[in-house]
Design a protein that fits this description.
Blueprint lengths: L2 H20 L6 H24 L3 H19 L5 H19 L1 H23 L2 H7 L2 H8 L4 H4 L6 H21 L6 H23 L3 H34 L6 H33 L6 H28 L20
């Protein structure tokens, strides 16, 4: 095929299609039909050039022309900012809200277990002796010791990034491993409760528990809530293996899995805020009441986001799943 002759023969069609694409929002009925016809013809031209004389410049020109015509025919895509806004105002809060019957009890159980273990450690020197040697405990709990110095162990920015990464891995494990019949999230919650309880118990045993809670609360409230959400949503995912309801097990896991992805993306942002608080607020020179107050405000804002914005979105029919147009087709099943 002579490429120059081919281009000259079809140049008018290409130019006409380009004109119609530019006027795609103001076409008459006959012009819209012409746009469809030219789109089909130029698509064939592109295929011919690619298969017989793959000239890069011509292929690039026709590819751009065909893509523009396709967009004009199928309609413009939703702007990215609208997708992100809808995700943050509907899909994410609804997904977290709809799982509250899992993650709220998980959080309450965590605090109960942590409190009981912390009280046991704080009031029993024998138990403390099994955790570490007396000298090691004194080193960890003294003024400027291990527990207190931890929050200023490095530059605030790098410390916040390290904390964010670590917590993101924990929440991801809770979410994604929940499919294993919900066992991993329960295990991760218990191990975290044990770690937190030991620190609180040892510091209270040394008479410095108030200081420790003042260091833990600014970031810990939001951070732990994110872990509770991850564990609860992960356990709900695992429950689909046991009881998928009227859906098939595969369909139930697919739907819940897509919601889990939404929650995972949202918790990355929540943990980013928590990491910033831990890196910049917790070790700051602000008085304890101010640091704790900032942590409480962050926690309250998150809960309002879930139980006000999320509840409203859920009542509007939002489930946290992707739009129906983006899901796979499924065959109807008997009720």
């Amino acid at each position: 095929m002579d490429l120059d002759v081919f281009i000259e023969r079809h140049r008018a069609s290409w130019q006409r299609l380009e004109q119609l694409v530019k006027r795609s929002g103001r076409l008459t009925g006959p012009e819209a039909d012409e746009l469809v016809d030219l789109y089909q013809r130029v698509t064939t031209h592109l295929s011919t050039v690619r298969s017989q004389t793959p000239d890069p410049a011509t292929v690039e020109r026709l590819s751009a022309l065909v893509a523009g015509a396709r967009a004009a025919l199928t309609g413009a895509h939703t702007p990215a900012w609208r997708v992100v806004t809808r995700f943050l105002t509907h899909r994410l809060p609804a997904a977290i809200y709809l799982g509250w019957r899992w993650w709220v009890p998980a959080g309450l159980a965590f605090y109960l277990v942590t409190g009981l273990i912390a009280a046991w450690v704080a009031t029993n020197p024998e138990v403390q002796a099994t955790i570490a040697a007396p000298d090691e405990i004194r080193e960890m709990t003294r003024a400027g010791g291990g527990y207190e110095a931890y929050y200023s162990s490095g530059p605030a920015g790098s410390f916040a990034a390290r904390v964010w990464t670590n917590n993101a891995w924990i929440t991801a494990a809770c979410l994604l491993l929940g499919v294993l019949v919900a066992i991993p999230p329960v295990y991760l919650l218990l191990t975290n409760a044990l770690n937190v309880a030991v620190g609180i118990g040892l510091m209270f045993g040394a008479g410095r528990g108030g200081l420790f809670l003042g260091l833990l609360a600014p970031h810990g409230l939001l951070e732990l809530t994110a872990v509770f959400v991850a564990a609860g949503i992960g356990m709900r995912l695992g429950w689909q293996v046991i009881d998928p309801g009227r859906r098939t097990r595969a369909a139930a896991l697919a739907a819940e899995g897509r919601s889990v992805v939404a929650v995972a993306l949202g918790l990355v942002l929540v943990l980013l805020v928590s990491g910033v608080l831990e890196g910049f607020v917790t070790p700051s020179g602000l008085p304890t009441w101010a640091r704790v107050g900032i942590g409480v405000v962050a926690e309250v804002l998150f809960l309002l986001y879930v139980f006000v914005v999320g509840r409203r979105a859920a009542r509007q029919g939002e489930t946290g799943d992707v739009d129906a147009s983006e899901r796979e087709d499924v065959a109807p099943v008997a009720v």
